[in-house]
Write a structure and sequence with these properties.
Number of strands: 0
Oligomer: single chain
CATH architecture of the largest domain: Orthogonal Bundle
Order of helices and strands: HHHHHHHHHHHH
Structural class: mainly alpha
Pfam families: TetR_N (PF00440)
Radius of gyration: 19 Å
Largest sheet: none
CATH class of the largest domain: Mainly Alpha
GO molecular function: DNA-binding transcription factor activity; transcription cis-regulatory region binding
Protein name: Transcriptional regulator BetI
Shape: globular
Strand content: under 5%
Keywords: DNA-binding, Transcription, Transcription regulation
Distance between the termini: 54 Å
């Protein structure tokens, strides 16, 4: 079988299993997904599923990616709300928190759970088959979305804030890491019911903390130019 035919077959089998996984998640939730349930729904054996997916965590990751469509569809709108990169980035956080706290288990699978391999490799595999999921996004945003390392994704976007004179280059990596830790901390707190937050309160509080963190590294003489209200 030629390489091209193998890729076509692989894409076809992925669709069978991911369609089935999506149905199981819709009906029972991502935490109740098993290889057997997915294989049965797809009309294949569990051993066939393992021919295409290394383990359950990978299949859950790929299926969970399908549930981020609403976030990706809204992201360009949020990224255009501000008048500079810092404002746009904060609005992108607003969009991300809105959707991630609405579907915490889904976003935990993608950005928090142990996958047993580098997430970047899984993301590359996913978008090789489902590249059309990104075609409606500007090229610049496609590049950012394709970066699964969340802090690196943030750093890629806020680099422009350095050019605009809002943030110093030395602070880029730090602010990207800190804001990621804020989101992860709040997500784990929310999912484990450690605070009595509604999903809206958890999202709003995360955005507030991200904004406070970001404003602390914005050059003092430029802070009045950042107008962001979630």
């Amino acid at each position: 079988m030629s390489k091209e035919r193998k890729e076509i077959q692989r894409a076809r089998m992925w669709r069978y299993f991911l369609d089935a996984a999506t149905d199981v998640i819709d009906e029972e939730g991502v935490n109740n997904v098993t290889i057997r349930k997915i294989a049965d729904r797809a009309g294949f054996t569990a051993s066939t599923a393992y021919n295409y997916f290394k383990d359950l965590s990978h299949l859950k990751f790929f299926a969970a990616m399908r549930f981020t469509a609403d976030y990706l569809n809204e992201l360009p709108e949020y990224l255009s709300k501000g008048s500079n990169t810092v404002e746009n980035w904060l609005h992108s956080w607003e969009c991300f928190c809105k959707h991630s706290f609405r579907q915490p288990e889904i976003y935990s699978v993608i950005f928090i759970d142990n996958l047993g391999t580098l997430p970047q490799e899984l993301l590359k595999d996913y978008y090789e088959i489902y590249r059309k999921d990104l075609t409606h996004l500007p090229d610049e945003i496609q590049t950012i979305v394709m970066e699964q390392n969340f802090s690196k994704r943030s750093a890629l976007y806020i680099e422009k804030a350095v050019e605009e004179g809002f943030i110093k280059q030395k602070d880029i990596e730090m602010i990207a890491e800190l804001t990621l830790m804020i989101w992860k901390g709040m997500m784990i707190t929310y999912m484990n019911n450690r605070r009595n937050y509604t999903q809206e309160e958890a999202a709003e509080r995360t955005v507030e903390l991200v904004k406070e963190c970001v404003m602390n590294v914005v050059i003092e003489t430029r802070r009045t130019e950042v107008n962001f209200h979630s």
